[in-house]
Specification:
eight-stranded antiparallel beta sheet, alpha+beta, 32% helix
Amino acid sequence: TEVSVRLRARPEVDETVAVAVGQWPQQLATFVSGLRTLPFTPYAVEVVNATLAGRLGLEPRDCVLVRMGGSGDAVRAQRAALSALGDMRDVTGPLWATLRAVEPPGSASLRLSRLPSRFPDTWADATRLTEPFSDALVHGAPLRGVVRCIVPNVSTARDGGRGHAVVGIQERLARALTAPFDGTRIFERAPDTIWRAFGPSAVVDRLSQGVKSAYDPLRLLNPGILGDCSTR
């Protein structure tokens, strides 16, 4: 196995801004197109939905988080270029660390991906997929074309306090997660009760099972993918 790592010097200035992109999703396509024409590559770019923005301590509206770094002059130039794409607001605090840890236990999650040029379409599909769940967290990387959908507390939550049974929520989740999608869909986590509905099929050939036994004898990794669903 060979791993290539791109290293950066510790920047003199490291800033993050939240960019309001106007009406969604129409102007999101314009923003993503403009992002590729910027004369610099941001450290990170992440689109977040309104619910997730609120969890991060931001105004609860769909927005784009952009992280920039470098010398003071470089960051000022980056901000000037970025300002042409939307209204910016400075973000302080450990936002990126909070984003990494925002997914609560008991959640269901999956990734949707297409070519980066189709990111607005992928975001729209993710929005439709999570529409039945008012507390869904959605975030995506437009430079990579990937969107993650998180439905919190599937195993314990009630549907907006209206008293619907957990099993009803999980049934609606299964229907939403298996809706037609013409890109790549990777299921990361789901309750045992619905994993079989859309999880990968079991692999039972001797070679695959031998690899699983050699590298994961306790069956801790990727439960369900190699025929271990019944042991979860």
